[in-house]
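Input chain follows. Return structure tokens only.
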Amino acid sequence: MEQLTQAPKVITFKYEEILNKNSELSERIEQAFGPNGLGLCLVEGVPEFVEKRQALLPLASKLADLPKEQLDKIEFPDQHYSLGWSHGKESFKGKKDFAKGSFYAVAQEDEHRPNHGDRDQEKEIDPFPKSLPELKPAFKSLGQLIINTGIKLTHHIDKYVAKKCPNYDEHKLEDIITEADNIIGRLLHYFPQDKKSEHKDGWCGIHNDLGSLTGLCPAMYLDKDGKETTFIDEETGLYCIGRDGKHYKVKIPKNCLAFQIGETFQIHTGGHVVATPHYVKVGDKMAGTGICRNTLAVFM
């Protein structure tokens, strides 16, 4: 792996800036998402975000600690584990991945979810566990907030791309996300590590997201008693691979949402915005601490 390097300054937008459709943000959009950017930006000051994050992320640990027979009820092999609970079903470097558990569900609140008339709502799967009733409202509330914020950001991404591509539909990405009726959120629980990882990307391997835009919460680290901890090995966390091939650690403040470009939108724009290769490293000092990592990603 390449030498790990401190990230260049990550482009940060204030929520008020993206809320204003007349804001001129194209230069900073290019710095964040263009051919020389990290493919990632931050949005700070989103109303109610801090409270909604605090309500949801500790529940990832409670979910992972449910008895196996309860977790079995929210596994859906016929959905290829793309809904409900998934642990040890994915592969990492040729082996089953037990480093993290994932819970997938539609991130939209029902009243905000478009209905194009082609969904059989009675046959839709409800993946939420009955034994953790607080999970569904917390998941959907934070998920919808991330989607709403992402839609506001896409207006400015579209404006930037339209300047680069004369035939580009100026509302393309904004319309794609606004009209989507099946936006999936992934609640992640990275299990504590008993020993040093064999791989630098031991908590989550290097990959690009496949969709158009991913909204990502700053991770929450919890100790073995389920309390948030400030002990974090400096090596541990999210890394992006820059266009120069170097590996940059990215710190997401607690009051910020991160947004990453996925491969689909890179294709839509002919490479004017570029997907973000990224991974999660677990540092050696985390071994034996009993500390876990929880976060939420929403794929738009």
